[in-house]
Write a sequence for this structure.
């Protein structure tokens, strides 16, 4: 699974370049997120601008990263397509994650500049 | 009727998803409805591979797609382990408590939330999940 990632100060921005985060890719996605969190990244922006499809396994992998960070930081999400957003609403994960319209908004919120 | 048959590998499920999306597009469903229909079939087929066949390749998962004037019906067949819906934990968590957030167990909840009918039966050793979506006239 291709995941573009870069740091802006101490915030890690992760942008999946695949159109799907599903059961066949969720394990790899979760593993890479775990590696980044284990190596000290505690504030993460997940940019879903390229993602057309997430199933419950993919959502579970995102939740796993959020739980791993716990209260020691935050994982926020940005640029979610309306169809994918319907899964967040259906599962009430829109009440769990902070979701932003743009990467800059997410970055500012995580950097405490909002 | 369209019949799709895939080997029981998770990387094959997107092929089914693409076919469902194509049908949804042909029926002029909006993008969210199309996504949700694909999501349901993908969840159902994932469950077949994960729970009926324990992610072991070499088994067939069959999907029949039947279009009627007022509904779209999907029948998903496997010959693996039977699901016991009564043993499936309800989908419940406290959004303010990180520890309670579920990392799995959402599939059946999604099916029941988005499809108009969900039936499960076993006939002659074959497990059949039937999903029905009513079509707007």
């Amino acid at each position: 699974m291709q995941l573009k990632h870069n740091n802006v100060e101490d915030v890690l921005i992760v942008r999946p370049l695949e159109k799907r985060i599903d059961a066949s890719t969720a394990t790899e996605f979760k593993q890479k997120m775990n590696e980044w969190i284990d190596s000290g990244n505690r504030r993460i922006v997940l940019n879903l601008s390229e993602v057309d499809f997430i199933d419950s396994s993919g959502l579970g992998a995102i939740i796993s990263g959020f739980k791993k960070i716990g209260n020691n930081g935050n994982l926020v999400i940005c640029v979610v397509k309306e169809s994918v957003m319907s899964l967040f609403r259906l599962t009430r994960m829109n009440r769990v994650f902070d979701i932003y319209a743009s990467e800059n908004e997410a970055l500012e919120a995580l950097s405490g500049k909002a | 009727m369209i019949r799709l048959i895939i080997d029981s590998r998770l990387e094959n499920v997107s092929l089914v998803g693409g076919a469902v999306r194509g049908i949804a597009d042909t029926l002029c469903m909006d993008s969210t409805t199309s996504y949700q229909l694909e999501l349901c079939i993908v969840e159902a087929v994932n469950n077949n591979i994960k729970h009926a066949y324990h992610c072991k390749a070499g088994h067939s998962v069959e999907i029949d797609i039947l279009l009627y004037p007022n509904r779209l019906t999907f029948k998903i067949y496997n010959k693996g382990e039977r699901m016991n819906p009564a043993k499936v934990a309800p989908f419940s968590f406290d959004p303010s408590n990180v520890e309670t957030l579920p990392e799995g167990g959402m599939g059946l909840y999604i099916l029941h939330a988005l499809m108009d009918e969900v039936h499960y039966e076993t006939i002659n050793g074959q497990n059949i999940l039937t999903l029905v979506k009513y079509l707007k006239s």
